[in-house]
Amino acid sequence: MSGRIPQGFIDELLTRIDIVELIDGYVPLKKRGREHMACCPFHSEKTPSFTVSSQKQFYHCFGCGAHGTAIGFLMDYDHLEFVEAIELLAQNLGLEVPREGAAATRQYDGDDYALLGKAAEFYKKALRNHPPAVDYLKGRGLTGQIAKDYALGYAPAAWDALIRHLQDSATAERLCRIGLVIKTDDGRYYDRFRDRIMFPIRDRRGRVIGFGARLLGQGTPKYLNSPETPLFHKGRSLYGWFEVRKAQAKHDSVLVVEGYMDVVALAQYGVCNAVATLGTATTREHIQQIYRNVHEIVFCFDGDRAGRSAAWRAAENLLPEFRDGLQARFVFLPEGEDPDSLIRKEGQQGWSDRHSRALTFDAYLLGQLQQELQIVGAGGRAQLAERAKPMLRQLPEGVFKSRFADELSKLVMVSSAKLIRMVGAENAASTKVEENRLHVHRNPVRMAIAALLHQPQLALEADSSERLSTLELPGISLLVEVIEIIRSNPHLSPASLVERYRDSKNYQHLLKLMQWRPLDIESGNLQPLFLDVMAVLERKQLDQQTDRLLQKARQGGLTMHEKCELRRLLHDSSDDRKLQDPVHPDS
Fold it and tell me: What is residue 578's predicted lDDT score, i.e. its pLDDT?
């Protein structure tokens, strides 16, 4: 297909894709502090120096210098052209790449919600007319009322039942785009979900955005979710969230489980505050979404190895979000049990008793560290301290962090104050090494651009970009341009912003600043920093303008307007410098 790929689509693609998940599919990553690390795939090394930032959606190797966005990674790793990398990322998200000026380009529209709603109604009707599916749900202890509350349905076993039902409402191609239909290599279409119990996934407004499906008979996969689509994003969506929010006044906590059948079974027994992740680990976006509505999250995991691994990933994503006033607890079920099976055995009271014994967040973290200490022995306390430092580094400042440091200090036999100093000193040392390596010298322009590359939305607070365009400083034109791009596109991610400069002479400069992390950038509190450096730049601009007018006044060439402007500048200036050759504005 000919035609240019719209910039807006590239921006959306980079906002939607998770670079950590993408690269982890090629190179196994391990989380360390705020970033993920691995041995670099672009050069041979024994000690990992390849880092991937979830916040910036950016990768960088401290060994060979390789760096870039998700697009750049695919271009370098798979040796793809730019357009090929875009197409591969879009394919991973279930999106079609639009082209400007191409007749075949189809825009997304709001009717997709209506189509998904029609599919849900079709599945509901099919459930009523398929006794084996009804018997299966009854066998799982579900009533007709709970099936109605969660809009459960059944996908017939036929290959094209849904396609035929919706043929007057949409083309098969469009149904494919929203995840209901699959297209074969030879251009044929068939229903994605067949002979499955259907669990509609709804957004906070109650609109169907996707489906979870459980196979009714034998076969694989047993559970199947909708693919990533323009409406459905696994890392942001939670099954049962709409139902919990409807009853939000009754709950001050949310229970996070691993399966949609767990959510429905718990609701059947009166536990109506459960949500489930959808084939993915609990993400920071999930946690942020829940904490915007309640103050406590209770994580419930199976007691097997996979469940404990999932719990630790959830804890890692919880660390940077755990501010004072919030609470989190962890429940681990007996091996071989899940919430669905356990609540049917123990009932609501038994579940409530188990729930009341849940581990607090700090107890869970310390328990994990104590287990490691038992493994490495008393001589491994220094090793344990190293293991714990990333936790302290990520926790927001506050009472919880201080209390956790106190408890941790008892384990490693180092004072909490010293532990915190060690973390601070380590940050300072690594920052100094990095600044020297990158040869980046501090100045207000670089600091402002670096802050915007970490947090683009700060540009919306800059009210002096037009005045700054007259400032004579290296890089000022780039700063002004970046601010204006963000103002015109306020939802740009850091990766989307830097990708806009791929064909520009400034691309490498921005990549270097993207990697640069002085302490005041790394602290995450960027608003005061950005406003301060913008104030410094504005002051410099006013000083330069004043000096230009003073120089012109000495030569006797000021217009009336310039004289008024100079008078204003001299009056407003907070600089108490003394002019060696003062000139009255009216002279």
Answer: 40
